[in-house]
Design goal:
The structure holds two protein chains of two kinds.
Chain A: H1 2-10, E1 21-23, H2 31-41, E2 46-47, H3 55-64, H4 71-85, E3 90-95, H5 103-113, E4 119-124, H6 130-140, H7 146-173, H8 182-196, H9 200-216, E5 226-232, H10 234-238, H11 246-252, E6 255-258, H12 263-269, H13 272-278, H14 291-304, E7 308-314, H15 318-334, E8 338-343, H16 349-372
Parallel strand pairs in A: 1-2, 1-3, 3-4, 5-6, 5-7, 7-8
Helix pairs in contact in A: 2-7, 2-8, 3-4, 7-8, 7-9, 7-12, 8-9, 13-14, 14-15
Chain B: E1 2-5, H1 11-24, E2 28-31, H2 37-46, H3 53-65, E3 71-73, E4 76-79, H4 88-100, E5 106-107, E6 110-112, H5 119-129, H6 134-164, E7 169-173, H7 176-179, H8 186-194, E8 198-201, H9 207-213, H10 224-236, E9 242-248, H11 252-264, E10 270-275, H12 281-302
Parallel strand pairs in B: 1-2, 1-3, 3-5, 4-6, 7-8, 7-9, 9-10
Helix pairs in contact in B: 1-6, 2-3, 5-6, 8-12, 9-10
Classes of the chains: A alpha/beta, B alpha/beta.
Chain lengths: 390, 303
């Protein structure tokens, strides 16, 4: 750690009077609070949100990444290259848990070998602690006092909480809106407002306002409600491009989608000791990253009588593979079907959609057989699960 | 009491320690056979298809032990300190085996130094589950550690002598369970010897020094096993003619670390060889032969 500090000191905050242009990799819609945070932290610099992920991004990322690295690495490298091409010169990376903690160092080397000139700021492992993060930000040229720094971090954290709260409700209800797309529209409007937010008061107002608006959306009544829980590796779950918009596809099939994993869950709701306990007999030890959460949540969905679980991860994700034998047993014991999907940069959309359709058909047939046999005691009500702290 | 030890993964790092420890506390040891094709196939059938090659081999070993012993020894390793972390696979290994083979009786320990579960605490717990007293266990552990240290130093001395020999020297930088497994790394070392070159192993160097020197190449590296293999490169890169990076498909940490080594070590010829369960020996032989030919030619020209 002391070594890193020295490294940071060698590079002064602003190089030769050039304007700092900050950029960071995409993950879902979280670019909104992160961009706002960076704007607040560095009033003299400019924040460049990297262009949205496209096929080109993945192609670029895959070309320069190691052979059997997981997909998030490739997406990040693609984002960085596109941001650098647009003029970014300070790149930010985080890193915790599994091998994600070592992404920063390798990505920096790859980009330097490509000939780009930039400053790389890594909030990995020890540096992610608030105190070290503050020192790092100061070295980059953040002029604020610790109190002001904390204030801006709090605003960003609260924005993420509000976002995830409404995203959770949106995922559950999107398939049942009287006018399709009304939840997505409301959510989009909320993101616009969060982009401009500058005080706690405004945040509370946004929360109140959208609570009302989400409640007012007209819903369709359905007879046969299918409920599916989504668990798995965090990046693949949170970046819709990397899971080929599977949640939207499920909503199109009129399925209630529940996904408790989100940035807010990772920041505030996560308690590794509790989730290890919630895995019951299936796991005795922590297998790395968020794998215990996958098992604990699957068990939770099994107990609630959900119709199915979709487990998603990027190819070769070690912690999730550690958890998969336990998931097999959860599926068997709770009699709940689990669809395992693994994504890398080159995943074929049609193949995944075919498997998803087959899975949904199977769930519908299963539900029908249950009802014919009079076994429909499980999960009949229209149940909204708010999650503990989503 | 018969204790089964799978001859895979960390067996190649702690062979003497485990053998002496169990003997000292009065247990009989059953070690599984050397890895063979049938074991690999059985392990592949029982594991998730995306897990790494050594993990599949490990499950094959565990399966072969189920009928032959009372308990199977499957420990869990998390870390040896804040920046000496094991790969995630070792953290989940106990639970994988428990979920795949519910009929097997497992014993083991949980080693996580940052959570006050250091080596002696771990072994004390292990002794307790076997019904042994604390003093007996600690004495056994002390003898076992001395035996392991003596064996390690002997291997280091032997390797240091090899460094002084003439001829083409090749450093195999990889995890010990890849290099020393007779089915995985065995054919490779045989090929190197056949070509008249001397194979040197990254895990037969001084581990403590390796861990320090690794940071010269990879600044913030925190996986202890990778630190040891990379540190061997940092220590001996000028004493050898070439370096072979050996990785199993799809190893989580090697994917990143080997990429960084390939990008940063430019003064010595380096190749990366990736092994998987569909390995054909002729493909491997072609690569090794051409690499050694280049090294020999380089040596001749520079002389």
């Amino acid at each position: 750690m002391s070594k890193q500090k020295q490294k940071g000191r060698e590079v002064p905050g602003i190089q030769g009077g050039k304007e700092q242009v900050f950029s960071f990799p995409h993950m879902g819609d979280y670019h909104v609070p992160i961009a706002r945070l960076l704007e607040n932290m560095f009033p003299s610099g400019r924040v460049l949100v990297p262009p949205p992920i496209t096929k080109q991004t993945i192609a670029l990322g895959s070309r320069y990444s190691p052979d059997f690295i997981c997909a998030p690495f490739k997406f990040n490298v693609g984002n960085y290259i596109e941001a650098l091409a647009k003029g970014a010169n300070v790149l930010i990376q985080t890193g915790l848990g599994c091998r994600f903690g070592y992404f920063g160092e390798v990505q920096e080397q790859i980009l330097r070998d490509l000939g780009y000139e930039f400053q790389f700021f890594s909030l990995a492992r020890e540096n992610a602690r608030l105190k070290n993060a503050y020192q790092g930000f100061r070295q980059l040229g953040c002029p604020h006092s610790p109190a002001k720094f904390l204030f801006y971090v709090l605003i960003a954290a609260e924005s993420i909480r509000i976002m995830d709260h409404f995203a959770f409700i949106m995922r559950e209800r999107a398939g049942f809106a009287q006018r399709p797309g009304s939840f997505e529209y409301l959510y989009g409007c909320m993101l616009e407002e969060l982009r401009q937010v500058s005080s706690i008061k405004e945040l509370l107002a946004i929360r109140r306002q959208y609570n009302e608006a989400f409640g007012k959306v007209e819903m369709r009544q359905t007879q046969h409600l299918l409920r599916v829980g989504i668990v798995g590796e965090l990046y693949t779950l949170m970046e819709p491009y990397s899971n080929l918009f599977i949640e939207k596809e499920l909503a199109r099939h009129n399925i209630m989608v529940s996904r408790r994993m989100s940035a807010a869950f990772l920041l505030f709701g996560k308690n590794s000791r509790k989730s290890l306990k919630d895995t019951g007999k299936y796991m005795r030890y922590w297998p790395g990253a968020n794998a215990t959460d996958s098992v604990a949540q699957s068990r939770y969905y099994g107990k609630l009588g959900y119709d199915g679980i979709i487990h998603m991860k990027s190819y070769g994700c070690t912690p999730e593979i550690n958890a998969m034998p336990a998931l097999h047993n959860v599926g068997k014991d709770y009699n709940i079907p689990i669809l395992y999907l693994s994504f890398d940069g080159q995943t074929n959309e049609t193949g995944v959609l075919t498997r998803l359709e087959a899975f949904v058909d199977m769930l519908e047939m299963r539900r029908k057989t249950f009802e014919e046999d009079g076994l429909s005691g499980r999960g009949h009500r229209f149940y909204f699960d708010k999650g503990s702290r989503s | 009491m018969k204790i089964g030890i799978p001859k895979a993964f960390l067996y190649y790092r702690y062979r003497e320690l485990w053998q002496t420890f169990f003997q000292e506390i009065g247990c009989e040891i059953v070690t599984s056979q050397d890895t063979n094709r049938a074991m690999l196939l059985a392990g592949t059938k029982d594991s998730i298809d995306e897990s790494c090659l050594p993990a599949k081999i490990y499950l094959g070993h565990v399966r072969s032990l189920i009928d032959g012993c009372d308990h199977i020894f499957v420990p869990r390793f998390e870390n040896f300190g804040k920046n000496d972390v094991m790969c995630d696979r070792f953290m989940g290994l106990h639970d994988i085996v428990r979920n795949v083979y519910p009929e097997a009786s497992l014993i083991g320990f949980d080693l996580a130094s940052t959570e006050h579960k250091s080596q002696w605490q771990a072994y004390l717990g292990l002794g307790k589950t076997l019904g042994k007293g604390a003093i007996e266990v600690l004495l056994a552990l002390r003898r076992a550690r001395l035996a392991q240290e003596a064996a390690d130093q002997k291997r280091q001395r032997q390797q240091n002598e090899l460094f002084r020999q003439q001829g083409v020297k090749i450093l195999l930088a990889a995890q010990p369970y890849l290099i020393h497994d007779p089915y995985v790394g065995g054919p490779l070392t045989a090929m190197i010897r056949e070509q008249g070159a001397i194979p040197l192993y990254s895990d037969h160097c001084c581990r403590r020094q390796c861990r320090k020197r690794a940071l010269e190449i990879c600044g913030n590296l925190y996986w202890i096993m990778n630190k040891e293999s990379v540190g061997a490169i940092a220590m001996h890169r000028h004493q050898v003619d070439g370096i072979i990076l050996l990785a199993a498909y799809p190893c989580g940490s090697d994917a990143l670390v080997n990429e960084l080594v390939l990008r940063k070590v430019k003064d010595v010829p380096v190749i990366q060889i990736i092994l998987d369960e569909q390995q054909s020996e002729s493909g491997l032989a072609t690569r090794v032969e051409s690499f050694i030919d280049i090294l020999k030619e380089r040596k001749r020209v520079s002389a």
